[in-house]
């Protein structure tokens, strides 16, 4: 299959380009940036010298002639662009009959009202929202395989949902709000320079209190209230979430461990039991690591991912694999 990447100069786009270039069944046919991009016509490997020899292709401006080239050459289009850009671009590629994998949040929520409330814009294509499959690979594989539009799950939600869905499915949770404290590395904020991600300014601090868009994304796809607080940490990549859960009375650690067995055969999920996941364990790896400890009815679950792999490009590639009927892990294990 021929794959093009829009937004290939960004952190998630470049990560995905490297995965596609190494994949045994995919061909990277084009890497695009905006028409006015300062990086247009540079080589991707000029921006990311670690990919010298692998990604020596130019970053092409997404002009009208580029759309024709994509129409003629691509099977799959991956949007590694800002939410609003993705909302506008997806219908254009869908109308060409392309399968679209959107790494942004542009098609993850259920209704236009959610976009107004949590993203601050009116959704221009609300009719597509119920056609998009939510790209949480381990939990929605049939829908992902069948859909023309895949809304690849958000980075923080990927860790939280894999940590919590087993408990929800086993009916171990009370109604009490689940508290999720999460820390992300700075690549989570994208490549564009800003004062908030400046080397000298980044410190460990929370942000987006009560209003981060990943709170509703987790709630919608879990079916449970959460209080989600992200933090920005002074490290490049990785997400660690500490999640506080109130269990129903008399739930035992054996029942909790049994609940997680639903993920035991998933090759990109590592169940650590009472061992504690860490950023070091997942950075540059395609896995979700999940660990848990219980005291009485209180359970603390810890989940860790690499935000650019399982939180973005890795999971997008997993969704592509599902669309092609390949194993989840094709092009993902042993390629780092
Ligand atoms: N970083 C992360 O950890 C994660 C990111 N995501 C999501 O993935 C998307 C990309 O994120 P990230 O890689 O961090 O972002 P970056 O800011 O690093 O990259 C954005 C890319 O989009 C390009 N771009 C901007 N405007 C346009 C346009 N109109 N047409 C074509 N290309 C355009 C940029 O290039 P230029 O401006 O030069 O044109 C750049 O290549 C976002 O929606 C983000 O929310 C999802 C999960 C995790
Ligand atoms: C550290 C940081 O800023 N992280 C980003 C989340 C990563 C991302 O791009 O979000 P999506 O998964 O929804 O696409 C943020 O909080 O907005």
Automatic annotation (TrEMBL):
GO terms for biological process: L-arginine biosynthetic process. Signal peptide: none annotated. The active site is at 155. Its main location: cytoplasm. InterPro entries: AGPR, AGPR_AS, AGPR_dimerisation_dom, AGPR_type-1, NAD(P)-bd_dom_sf, Semialdehyde_DH_NAD-bd. CDD domains: AGPR_1_C, AGPR_1_N. It is found in: Cytoplasm. One of its GO terms (molecular function) is NADP+ binding. The keyword Aminoacyl-tRNA synthetase does not apply. Pfam families: Semialdhyde_dh, Semialdhyde_dhC_1. One of its GO terms (cellular component) is cytoplasm. Keywords: Amino-acid biosynthesis, Arginine biosynthesis, Cytoplasm, NADP, Oxidoreductase. It catalyses: N-acetyl-L-glutamate 5-semialdehyde + phosphate + NADP(+) = N-acetyl-L-glutamyl 5-phosphate + NADPH + H(+). The keyword NADP applies. Its EC number is 1.2.1.38. Catalyzes the NADPH-dependent reduction of N-acetyl-5-glutamyl phosphate to yield N-acetyl-L-glutamate 5-semialdehyde. This is N-acetyl-gamma-glutamyl-phosphate reductase. It comes from Pseudoalteromonas nigrifaciens.
């Amino acid at each position: 299959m021929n794959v093009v990447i829009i937004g290939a100069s960004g952190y998630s786009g470049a990560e995905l380009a490297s995965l596609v270039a190494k994949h045994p069944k995919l061909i990277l046919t084009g890497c695009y940036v905006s028409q006015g991009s300062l990086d247009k016509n540079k080589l991707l490997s000029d921006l990311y010298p670690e990919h010298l020899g692998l990604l020596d292709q130019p970053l092409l401006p997404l002009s009208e002639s580029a759309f024709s080239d994509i129409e003629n050459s691509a099977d799959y289009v991956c949007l590694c662009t800002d939410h609003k850009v993705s909302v506008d671009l997806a219908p254009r590629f869908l109308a060409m009959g392309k399968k679209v994998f959107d790494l942004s949040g542009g098609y993850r929520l259920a209704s236009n009202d959610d976009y107004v409330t949590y993203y601050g814009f009116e959704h221009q294509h609300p009719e597509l929202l119920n056609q998009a499959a939510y790209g949480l690979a381990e939990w929605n594989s049939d829908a992902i395989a069948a859909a023309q539009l895949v809304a690849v799950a958000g980075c923080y939600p990927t860790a939280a949902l894999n940590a919590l869905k087993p408990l929800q499915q086993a009916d171990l949770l009370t109604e009490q709000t689940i508290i999720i404290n999460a820390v992300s590395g700075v690549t989570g904020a994208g490549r564009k320079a800003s004062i908030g991600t400046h080397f000298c300014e980044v410190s460990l601090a929370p942000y987006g209190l009560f209003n981060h868009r990943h709170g509703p994304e987790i709630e919608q796809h879990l079916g449970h209230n959460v209080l989600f607080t992200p933090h920005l940490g002074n490290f490049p990549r990785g997400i660690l979430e500490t999640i506080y859960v109130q269990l129903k009375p008399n739930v035992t650690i054996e029942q909790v461990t049994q609940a997680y067995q639903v993920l035991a055969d998933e090759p990109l999920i590592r169940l650590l039991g009472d061992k504690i996941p860490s950023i070091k364990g997942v950075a540059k790896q395609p896995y979700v690591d999940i660990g848990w400890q219980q005291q009485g009815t209180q359970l603390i679950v810890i989940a860790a991912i690499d935000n650019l792999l399982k939180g973005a490009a890795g999971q997008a590639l997993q969704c592509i694999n599902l669309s092609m009927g390949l194993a989840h892990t094709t092009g993902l294990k042993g390629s780092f």
